Amino acid sequence: MLEVTSTNSNLHEQQFGADLGITLTINLPKRLVLQTGHLVQIKQAANREDIRESPKWLVDRSQLEKLLEADSSATYWLLQLHHAPKVLSVPAKYLLGLFDARRRKQTTMTVVYDQVRSASTTLGSELVPLLMGLWVGVADKEVVAIAQGMDSRHVPARVIELTLSFDEPR
Question: Is residue 22 within 8 Å of 37, Cβ to Cβ?
């Protein structure tokens, strides 16, 4: 089951830094019962109108740190329209590493395609094998509540719930 619900994006994004919360619930009786939460920040290419230049995205350090504080496996989905629409999924901790590699402290940075291409994966690769294979997402109840939009202090702009269940034959 895939369910998407919407909340007030401006207010919640400012409070927590997440555009999207994804929860995965696995209920396979006598095999596996687990619930995880995953947080995502979505950025459009700043130069989406100019396809001659490599795509680039503006990343805010405080938003990035807020996201990682709750979900150490958080990702950024970088949207680009260059040549063909595409979504790159990049680990938030990788972007933090790019910030830390710079000599002077910055509150924002521009990330270009060449900096993230080798650390990124496609959206389909994240959703199926990474999320459902449990490579990303946190089993902590607080993170699950945030991803579900249940924590009144930290609600992502959108929530996706994935449920995998299996009933024993009778």
Answer: yes
